[in-house]
Input
Amino acid sequence: MKFLNFMLTLTLAVAGSAMADDVRYGSECGLTDLNGDESWVDIEERKTITLWEETTDEQIHALPLLAKQQLIIGANQLQDHRFGSTVEAVRSLMAASSGAEVHVSSFKVNGRKFTIVNHYPGDNPYGAIFKFGTRKLVAVTSDSDVICL
Output
């Protein structure tokens, strides 16, 4: 049986209020309810594309155009580098991530939708947050901080 390399999941969840003392809130970009363990408050629906180390280049090429653009922009921001292709960006994020995983997730906070590209270079997720459905980068996350751009 062939191992599943690419997974698209839809998870429906309703979360209660979660807050952490060490959170730096990004109120100026509408991200006021994020905490460091990536538990989103008031999640109505979350769609996630998970890319694993075993994900093939062909599967990366087959991603939706917007996801590919967000992966490149996110990797450029998170790694301070200019990647020429989605495959190069994803492989670089995987190499820098413990567990070699990269996620593209959509979520909702306070009635506003966002998309995050993230990976785990250590215990905490580092991510690039976009206005949903766009390439507009609104914030980055690192070590439990949300920094609005």
Notes: Residues 41-148 form one domain. The chain is about 20% helix and 30% strand. Residues 1-25, 35-45 have pLDDT under 50 and may be disordered.
